[in-house]
Structure formats: structure tokens, C-alpha cells
Amino acid sequence: MASKNTSGAAALRYATALVDIAQDSNKIDAVEKDLNDREAMISGSEDLQNMIRSPLISRTQQQQAMQALAAKAKFQDITANFLALLAQNRRLNMVQGIINAVRMDISRRRGEISANVQSAFKLTSAQEKALQDALAKAVGKAVAVNVEVKEDLIGGMVVTVGSQMIDSSVKRKLERLKIAMKSNANSNASGAKIANQN
What we know:
mainly alpha
């Protein structure tokens, strides 16, 4: 438990330092986009995941990999240097926790409320936007949505917005969104099944 808490505190320190630098350079939006792109790259590449986790990969190798990735993706210098620092300090395994902490810090500075969403399947951009709009209407201010996919989730979706309850009208909208998402997921599954049969 202590190790987990220590890890979380370290992630928060790194996140705060990065957001401070990005804010001073007026590059918060650009750095946020870089981190979102990097997160997508990691989730889509088993090789990258192994490189981040493996203790057999040296600091130098990790730094070189991060520099190559940053150059290919045309990341901001701030983001590239930050990723290289994480590699140098052997903290790349904390990168997801740091990205989450960065999102929360940026949302707080923008005056947004963070909403954590656990979904049984990946939301499309349109579905995520619809959810964000429904939640923003419910709480009366901008909402930053952080979506986590949990395939074994019962009920399709769990939404938490700070300590505020979601009113019934938004619940109905969320229910309609869930139905549409389930329908979309079922249709994708049927298409895959047909494709496999052909």
C-alpha cells in the first residue's frame, strides 16, 4: 500500500512540474495533445508496452526510444524532454499515472470538473463528446472526461463526477447513449462474425 501511495505522489509531482512548464510556455493545449497521442501509441503497441515495463531495457535504450517516438510524432520540445527525463529516472512505468494526473491538473486550472468514466467498450469520439455535453449540462460547467475501458464491467458504463449526483434527465441521456453504444458494439461483433465465416 505504501509503495502505491509513494508512486502516486511521485506521479503527481512529475505532472505538476510538467503542467507548470507548459503553462509558463503557453503550450498547455499542445502538451496535452502530445500526451493523448502518446497514450494512444502505447495502448496500440505491445512492443512499446514491453519496452516501458521491462527492467532489462537500459536507461539509454529507453531514452533513445522516447526520443525517436517524440521525433516521429513531432511532439513539443517540452514533451520530448519530459519523456527523456522519465526514461533517465527509470519512471516510464509510471507514465499512465502521470498522464492521468496531468489531465486532472489541467482540468483544475481551466476550472473544469473531472468526470471518470468506466465503459465496457471503447467510446467513439462522437459518443465521448455526447457524454461530455450531457454531463456539462448536468453540472452547469465544463467537464473533462477521462474514459477507462473495462471489458468485464457489468451494466455497460459507470460515471463519477466528483461528489455530485447525476440528475435523472442526464441519467436518461446516458441510458440512451448506452443503448446506442451497445447496438453499435453488437453490430460490430456481428460484422466480425460474418467476416470470420467468409
